[in-house]
Design brief:
285 residues; alpha/beta; Rossmann fold; seven-stranded mixed beta sheet; 11 helices; 7 strands; globular; Methyltranfer_dom; Erg6_SMT_methyltransf; methyltransferase activity; SAM-dependent_MTases_sf; Ubiquinone/menaquinone biosynthesis C-methylase UbiE
Amino acid sequence: MNSQAVRAQQITEWTLCAGAWREYRANFVEPSRPITETMLRLADLRPGERVLDLACGVGNPALDAAARVGADGHVLGLDLVEAMVDGARAVAAEAGVRNVEFRTIPDERTLGVPDATFDAATCRAGLQYMPDRAGAMEAVLRALRPGGRFVAMTLGSAERCMPFQLTNGIVSRHVPLPAKAPDDDSGPVGLSSLKELVHLFGEAGFVDLRTEVFEAPIFEAADPASAWEFFARTAGPFIPLLESLPEPTRQAIHEDAVRTFGAAFPDGPVRPTGEVLVVCGRRPD
């Protein structure tokens, strides 16, 4: 599958769930705050700075970054998916955040910004979906001023990320999981090697690399049924598959999910964790 076909498929899949990501913000923004805080700490944002957030989704961590840089600073969020950008704009408007802007881009290499105009950049759980990761890294490097910082976060493998471990098992007990093209390694855990992530930074020209690997909550739901609803409505790559199934199969998967999440979290809210990989690099002076 060529890069443009991968992007087109991703736009279709994430458009389907963009509204749900806005609707369920409370299920992931606060539970996964340790991830956001780690990224922004490494980015070392300061009042008055300009920040670029690539693959911004519905505004996380762009809105938190906007608070860090203050009224004299500015955050620009970029995403392939127009519906995600619309959601981010709506969330920012509801929160009264004025120093943030969101735009769509045609691909991860074409950011539409002048060179050397940003002090810092972030990319939360976005690089693993990009077919041209090296091109994205080079584009971010160009956008940064000398000395500018870039922080990227991805997830560990499905075996080290409980949400995917559970949901992959649930779905695969009833239907085959969606097949990937042999030359397409994009996806939720498509960049799950710290070594590979560090290599991307180094090859792009970033220096003074710092890494952090830790376990953190990915989302939270009040009960097993709510946990499955969150996944089924926000997991872009799975939505076309789930919607294509006959009602008896969907119901069987739902019942399996409730049992599985209930067994994993018998005494309280469903709060699955996963391995988080974070790398920070600096554009040379």
